[in-house]
Design brief:
Length: 85
């Protein structure tokens, strides 16, 4: 991963994870995940942020819901405001 200070109050973070879970007994079981996180400092205690991510599960890592296999891809988007007390 990497963190880049775009300005004094704006930070961009990006990372890629490759996880393999050989202990499960499934060949090439695990996932690949990447994300981008943009953070804007509004004050000493408040921060606004937006994050997006993508996950690709390998083999049986996505699991099963009921009797249906889950999708092997997932996308996420988070927008938020954090205030530290």
């Amino acid at each position: 991963g990497a963190v880049l200070a775009l300005t004094a109050d704006l930070t961009l973070t990006s990372a890629y994870y490759r996880v393999r879970r050989e202990a499960t007994g499934f060949a090439d079981d695990g996932f690949d995940r990447s994300f981008i996180y943009l953070e804007k400092s509004l004050s000493k205690r408040s921060t606004a942020y937006i994050e997006t991510d993508y996950t690709n599960w390998k083999a049986n890592a996505a699991g099963v819901s009921g009797n249906k296999t889950n999708s092997s891809n997932g996308y996420g988007l988070t927008i938020g405001l954090m205030h530290k007390f």
